[in-house]
Amino acid sequence: MNWLEEVLGSEWKITPAGGATGDAYFATKDEQQLFLKRNSSPFLAVLSAEGIVPKLMWTKRMENGDVITAQHRLIGRELKAVDMHGQHVAELLRKIHRSKELLDMLRRLGKQPLTPNSIIEDIQQAVVFEKIETPEIRDAIDLLIEQLPDVQCNDQVVCHCDVNHNNWLISEDNQLYLIDWDGAMIADPAIDIGILLYWYIDEADWEAWLSAYGLELNLNLRTRIYWYVLLQAITSFLWYHAKNNNKEMNNWVEHISIIINKIKSSSQE
Predict the structure, then answer these.
(1) Residue by residue, what is the 3-state secondary structure of 123-180?
(2) The whole model's pTM is what?
(3) By its UniProt entry, which InterPro entries does this protein fall under (predicted)?
(4) Looking at domain 78-267, does it have CATH number 3.90.1200.10?
């Protein structure tokens, strides 16, 4: 943490903030509380300006080229799974997906749109490389390929791609934020909508949630939702396969079978 003392001075109390990279810290001095991170994306400044993440206080470039960002440390809590049905979640996700500023910034950073065809190609290559012969995985990929003509979408927006309830923070004054933008992509909004609806909202309530978001649940949207949910399940299986975690792999195979059955039964209605 020497680099932090160089930035802040020794009078600050610094503690690790957790996370996969180990490059995030909390800093406290008197009444001031900051969240510090090394080498955040330049995207952070636009997210802060849009009120989507806690306020960016300052940015500093180090002699070695590292960039340190300091955000206001939020006093509040993560959302619980039961909170995800709330209208404020739908409204913030709609704001994100409709933001021209966010989309322009990701384009300037060189992000290319994620298309269903390119996703399938990547998945197929990973399955071949890992020599995966699980029947459910083959069936899932076949179904995704079969539905490719039905999931093309001209609406390309900024997607968070990890709308897990732990990434939603609500402040003491009821301000909602969505954090951890390292995996953001330009893609079909159904990537975010689908994962959120499938894992957190009863299907009977999808129409009401989507109404708060600003969409109507039609056959095309339902098809895209399940397509991306199935895709995410395969991706999760592959992630645990790479870690040789058989228990989680088996869990995801079960999920994949359930999702395939839902898709097939839905297409027969």
Answers:
(1) HHHHHHHCCCCCHHHHHHHHHHHHCHHHCCCCCCEEECCCCCHHHEEEECCCCEEECC
(2) 0.89
(3) Aminoglycoside_PTrfase, CcrZ_PhaseVar_Mediator, Kinase-like_dom_sf
(4) yes
